[in-house]
Amino acid sequence: MEEIQTQSDNYRSSSSSASSPASRVPSSNFFYLRKPGSLRQPISFEDSPEWEDTDIDVRLEEGGDSINAATTATTPASPSLLKLNSGSLPSPPLAEGAVVARKIAGASVVWKDLTVTIKGKRKYSDKVIKSSTGYALPGTMTVIMGPAKSGKSTLLRAIAGRLHHTTKVYGEIFVNGAPSHMPYGSYGFVERESTLIGSLTVREYLYYSALLQLPGFFCQKRSVVEDAIHAMSLSDHANKLIGGHCYMKGLPSGERRRVSIARELVMRPLILFIDEPLYHLDSVSALLMMVTLKKLASTGCTLMFTIYQSSTEVFGLFDRICLLSNGNTLFFGETLACLQHFSNAGFPCPIMQSPSDHFLRAINTDFDRIIAMCKNWQDDHGEFSSVNMDTAVAIRTLEATYKSSADAAAVETMILKLTEKGGPHLKSKGKASCATRIAVLTWRSLLIMSREWKYYWLRLILFMLLTLCIGTVFSGLGHSLSSVVTRVAAIFAFVSFTSLLSIAGVPALLKEIKIYASEESNRHSGAFVFLLGQLFSSIPFLFLISISSSLVFYFLIGLRDEFSLLMYFVLNFFLCLLVNEGLMLLITSLWRDVFWSVLTLVSLHVVMILSAGYLRIRNALPRAVWMYPVSYIAFHTYSIQGMLENEYLRTSFAVGQVRTISGFQALRSAYDISLDSNSKWVNLLVLFLMAIGYRILVFVVLHFCVGKHKSMLKFCRSNPDRNNPR
User: Fold this and answer.
1) GO CC annotation: what is one (predicted)?
2) Could you give the CA distance from residue 426 to residue 173 in angstroms, rounded to a whole number?
3) What is the CA 79 to chain-centroid distance, rounded?
4) Where would you tag: which of 67, 279, 435, 470 has the fewest CB atoms within 10 A of its CB?
């Protein structure tokens, strides 16, 4: 304690010199935070503003939809916390003709003694969050702030119930005064990096999201979409493609972020969780985002989000702040009360410095390395940093000061008020039917395919060019016995090279899987629905490739001119592409990375081609590995065998002027086929079963591995050091 006091005294002296009257600038350049009902009043960070004390009165209305918060002039429980309430920023007057936003009955959220442990996450301790306590009220913005790896996102996910099932969570969470339960549609969660569909316009993207999420008629969902567009100020971008087209640029990062938030607003949630809403945004886009969220909160929605750092203007929009460092809660309360808390602990914010910068400077251990590197360097104004206290000491000082402060007692009092009487339970909103979601995903995927020329139409052109090349190389073979071996080589090259070319579709499949993971995490989609929608939408495209490529190859090579044989060839090649698509989907869902997916698929195709029975006859392959099981797993084997049986069974070739041999005998030295006339249909059946089998494996991978979160977690109400969670 003596060390802490000495360091605090040193800091006070350096801070006071940095903010002395001689060094102050005119008040017009001060950071502005507003007193309730006042505009642009400058506030000195050293002096606490003399405002009338206010308290927050919580009324639980019988039969109501939410807990309403109001301010009344009462005796404050905390002089610093209760001087400022969530109404510190007055709402600007509405312009004439402006549309009044729809009011939302929000919900209160309380977390008490919340501890999260993840094995191996931290070097010295598995506790990522340590006994955090706080609350969020309707119509307010509660921000979780701290340096990198301080536990911000983990705390937000723990409150929303979106941590992995292996994570252990201790403590209590209440929603509207009742134990934590947030059913479908009552809350929304926006990831740090949301996956959007670049080939759709903003309005189309939100409309398809509404169709996936909401039951009811299509016309009813259009009004919901328009409300979401208006709420996030996207009216000017509603008809623009998210990702752009040709020489047209897509939406900037700020608008993309607002689109991802608008997708969750389609459900009209009572509580909205956002992980880093200012991620990758410049200062102007960040301010516009926060003003939009402030407007959204004014409708009654409960907003909670994480943030790493903010500008002075953005900081003034926050209602409450939860400050974390290495999982420890250093402060929870009103934003300006946090400034007072730092001042009480010996770290007053200097004039002309952003509060968030000051907070992070005091609690971010990375600054210790910077100070050590620059300890002998001084600028024209003196020391490199006004904070000359060791960060670890500062963190301990702030934590100890907060635990013994009236601010922490006021938080406990508020939590007691919010939880002593249970409020109304949140009601689950209905979902769209399974058939509706399958139809929506199918139609949306078809629309995406029609616009994604790089992944779909370019592939079709490449297939045609490859088929044309193979066909011209092997053209003019005739129907003599000497042409049999060459025709086998042509069919082998056609099946092998086209299957390799299909790997060019991996990026498109990876985008679909990322979109599925994003939608599944919010329960907008499911593995079964996604697979059927993807299958139904891919069938027209694959059939278009198969029939166009087959026609070019079939007539250039000069195969038998019979319509039934041509249709079998097209169907065989279509199933071959369908099996390959399933294999690509399986590998891509396992890796979820373009490089490793392509590398794995190329390796698998090379192994399958080697054992397909052309380079060496199937019966002559080494039985271990190559014949069993590789040759039976390779779909090339069944496709090539079926095409050859379709072409050469029930045919004969003249040998000299007297003797003839059957097509089966002519093929014996080139490829191994069956004498059974129904064998080609058996090969077709095997291809069909392989296509189904690969998609069953994809279903298992998607269901258990991709984008899975537990909807809600069970909490242990005791000390994690003594008990295990239930």
Assistant:
1) membrane
2) 14
3) 41
4) 435
152, 324 contact by CB (below 8 A): yes
CA atoms within 13 A on the CB side of 370: 12
Q: What is the CA radius of gyration of the chain?
A: 33
Q: Are 266 and 212 in contact (CB under 8 A)?
A: no
How many CA atoms does the CB half-sphere of 575 hold within 13 Å?
26
- Spatial separation of the C-alpha atoms in residues 54 and 36, rounded to whole Å: 10
Q: Above 70 in pLDDT, residue 247? A: no
d(C-alpha 679, C-alpha 86), whole Å: 76
Backbone angles phi, psi at 483, to 5 degrees: -90, -5
**Distance separating alpha carbons of residues 543 and 223, to the nearest angstrom:** 37
Which residues does residue 659 pair with via DSSP β-bridges, in sequence order? Answer: 655
Closest CA to 667 of 650, 683, 651, 648: 648
Q: Are 306 and 276 in contact (CB under 8 A)?
A: yes
Distance (Å, rounded) from C-alpha 680 to C-alpha 645? 6
C-alpha to C-alpha distance for 41 and 37, rounded to whole angstroms: 10
pLDDT band at residue 228 using 50, 70 and 90 as cut-offs:
very high
The residue type of 5 is: Q
Phi/psi region, residue 656 (left: phi>0; alpha: psi -120 to 50; beta: rest), is: left
Query: What is the C-alpha separation between 665 and 596, in angstroms, rounded?
Result: 43
Residue where the block lists tokens 């003019």: 476
**Distance between CA 352 and CA 354 in Å, rounded?**
7
Angle at 714 between CA 708 and CA 716, to 5 degrees: 140
Q: And the tokens for 401?
A: 């000061």
Q: Three-state SS across 521-548?
A: HCCCCCHHHHHHHHHHHHHHHHHHHHHH
Tell which residue, 584, 501, 569, 570, has the closest CA to residue 538. 584
- DSSP letter at 245? B
Q: What is the pLDDT of residue 42?
A: 33
CA 625 to chain CA mean position, Å: 41
Q: What is the DSSP letter of 384?
A: S
Q: Is the peptide bond before 76 cis (omega within 30 degrees of 0)?
A: no
According to DSSP, residue 379 is labeled B
Q: Where are the domains of the chain?
A: 195-267, 434-714
- Phi/psi of residue 232, nearest 5 degrees: -100, 15
Over residues 281-325, the pLDDT tens digits come to 888 889 999 999 999 999 999 999 999 888 888 998 999 999 999
Report in angstroms the alpha-carbon separations of 313 from 233, 352, 353: 19, 13, 12
What is the spatial distance between Cα 300 and Cα 229, in angstroms, rounded to a whole number? 17
> What distance in Å separates the CA atoms of residue 562 and residue 566, rounded to the nearest whole number?
6
Q: CA 485 to CA 488: how far, in whole Å?
A: 5
| Helical (H) or strand (E) element with 127 | strand 127-136
Residue in this structure with the two tokens 């003249």, named with its chain if needed = 654
Q: Amino acid identity of 142?
A: T
**Inter-CA distances, 440 with 419, 435, 446, Å:** 42, 9, 10
- What is the per-residue pLDDT across 492-545, written as a single tens digit (0 to 9) for each? 999 999 999 999 999 999 999 999 999 998 888 899 999 999 999 999 999 999
* Mean pLDDT for the chain overall: 81
Cβ(601)–Cβ(583) under 8 Å? yes
Query: CA quadruple 155, 159, 163, 165: dihedral positive or negative?
Result: positive
Q: How many CB atoms lie within 10 A of CB 569?
A: 22
SS3 658: coil
- 412: Cα within 13 Å, side-chain hemisphere: 9
